[in-house]
Amino acid sequence: MFNVEEALGKVTDFIHDEANTKTVIGDAFKLGEFECVPVIKVGMGFGSGGGEGKDPKKGAGEGGGAGAAFGIEPIGFLVSRGQDIHFVPTSNKQGLGSVLEKVPGVMEKYFDMQKDKKTADAN
Predict the structure, then answer these.
(1) How confident is the model at residue 106 (pLDDT cuts 50, 70, 90)?
(2) Which of 8, 54, 89, 123 would disulfide-bridge 76, Cβ 3.0–4.6 Å?
């Protein structure tokens, strides 16, 4: 039968060897008087299952399986100069939070346009 512990051990070894900034985007480096350290985001998920059963015609059987997903994404750099440290993102994406912050303003503009249209239609 499938050995889940053995599979998770192999995945853990892979993560230890491969999921670090050195293998994804490189070592820390110096740029003039700035020291730059790459920052990554790591996500993972695991799943496994197994079972057994008996059928009067086909006999007994058992089976199992496992799966894993793994993602690594460079998200920015920690940049330092002297005692000052700043995070510099690699992307300008603002994400869903930014969109939700803009919704009230967009809705207000929409309602103002509808009000202006009704006023123009009434005249």
Answers:
(1) low
(2) 89
